[in-house]
Amino acid sequence: MSSLTTVVYDDSDTDHIKYINALTGPSQGKGWSPYVGLSLNEDLEGAIHNSTLHVATITGASLEFTFSGTRIAVFGSVWPPTTTYVPLTISEYAVRAVDSAAANVSSGSFQAPNLTIPKNNLEFFTSDDMPYGTYVLTVNLTGTSIDWPYYLDYFAIQAPRDAKPLLSTTTSQSSAASSTPTSALQGTSSPPSRLGPVMGAVAGIILTVAVVIVAVIFVRRGRRYTHVAYDDEDAGQRDTPSPPPPTPFVLPYYYSSDGMTEVDRLKPVPEAPQGMQTGPPPGHGGTLRASHGATRPVDAPPAYSQS
C-alpha cells in the first residue's frame, strides 16, 4: 500500500484561500473576519489549529480554495449560540475539477449542532476519493448570524507521497494505515498542540500576580513605617517639658545700721528745717550691710548746714 502525504492549510493562508463577502442584500461587502486566540480548555474543547479562525456572521458569504490532491477535509469550530431561537448555521460544500466543466465530483453540507460548550477541531466536510489532480473547493454559507457564527479552522489535503503538490506548503508524511486525528482522512497529521503556549501564558500570569503582590506588600510596609515615625515625632514634641516661666526680678533689700534700706536711700530726702543738722552725729560713721551679711565702713556725708 502506497504511503500518503497530508498537507494542512490554515485558515490564515489568504494566499491560497479566497474569502468572498456577501455580494447582495443589506450586508453586501460584509461577511468574514479573522479571529486569533487559544482554546480555553484543550482537553475539553479541543485545540484551535495555529490559534486562528475565520468567522462568518453573514448569510451569503462564501470562499474558494484551489488544491492538488485526492481528497480534502474541512475542519472548524462550533460554539454555543448566544441567544435562543437562533437560525441554524448551515454550510454547503462542493468540489469540482479545475480542468473539467463536468459537474461537481463531490459535495455535502453541514449543520452545526446546538452545543452547550465550544468544540474545536470538528469535521465539517470530507470529500470522496478522487483521482489525483487539481480541484476547487467552494463553501457557501446558507445560514449563519452574529448570534451563531460559522468558524473555519483549516483544510487537510490527502495526496500520494510520490506526487508533487501543486501548491507548496509544509507537509507531514504518514502511511495510509496510520492513525489520524479524526476519521476524515487517512494519514492526516494532528494539528500541533497549543499546550506549550498555554502553559507559557499561565506561567506569565502567575509571575505577574506574584510581582504585584510583592509590590503591594512593600508599599504598605513603607506607609506603616512612615506613619510610626510621624507618631514618634509628635510624641517627642508632646513629651518635651515646657521651659519654666521667667522669675520676675525683685529688688533686694539692704539694711544698714541706721535701719534704712537701699530703696529708702533712693527716695528723695526732704529738705531739713532751718538750723537742724542732718546726717549721723559728728564722728560717727555709718555702715552698709551687703546682701551676704558682711559690713563695710561707709564714710559719713559732710555736715549739712544752711548757709
Please give a structural write-up.
The protein has 307 residues and is an alpha+beta fold. It is 18% helix and 30% strand. The protein has helices at 42-45, 195-239, 262-266; strands at 4-10, 17-20, 32-36, 52-56, 62-69, 71-78, 90-97, 106-111, 119-126, 133-143, 150-160, 171-174, 286-289, 295-298. Strands 1, 3, 4, 6, 9, 11 and 12 form a seven-stranded antiparallel beta sheet that branches. The chain has a five-stranded antiparallel beta sheet with strand order 2-5-10-7-8, with no helix packed on it. β13 (286-289) and β14 form a beta hairpin. The longest helix has 45 residues, at 195-239. The N and C termini lie far apart (168 Å).
What are the main properties of this structure?
307 residues, alpha+beta, seven-stranded antiparallel sheet, five-stranded antiparallel sheet, 14 strands
Summarize the topology:
Layout: E1 4-10, E2 17-20, E3 32-36, H1 42-45, E4 52-56, E5 62-69, E6 71-78, E7 90-97, E8 106-111, E9 119-126, E10 133-143, E11 150-160, E12 171-174, H2 195-239, H3 262-266, E13 286-289, E14 295-298
The poorly predicted ranges are 168-183, 187-193, 228-233, 283-295
End-to-end Cα distance, whole Å, is 168 Å
What characteristic shape results from the CA principal axes?
elongated
Order of helices and strands: EEEHEEEEEEEEEHHEE
Helix content: 10-25%
Question: Radius of gyration over alpha carbons?
Answer: 55 Å
Oligomerization? single chain
Q: If helices are DSSP runs of H or I spanning 4 or more residues, what is the number of helices?
A: 3
